Amino acid sequence: MSQEGPHTPNPQDELAKFVQERLEMRKWCMVFENRLELCWPAEKSAADVAREKEIREFAKANGWTAEIHDAGLSVIFKKSRPNDSTVL
After folding, report:
1. Residue 86, exposed/middle/buried by CB under 10 A (0-12, 13-18, 19+)?
2. Model pTM score
3. Domain residue limits, the chain
């Protein structure tokens, strides 16, 4: 039986908190695969495109941009500027 309940942290909520805290102190926050894997498990296939899209949507939903570097290794999140209409 699953141990999930109202007190089980959502990995995306935890990541959002982590990124937000760092963006309050600096202009960008690099997140490595060990944290990304908790939210979006890596699959070496066409699923990589879907994973990148989900990461970009997560960033946009939180008011950030996402620069995916070395797919499967790291992502840099930055605060969106008012004139940013797309996520990198």
Report:
1. exposed
2. 0.73
3. 11-79
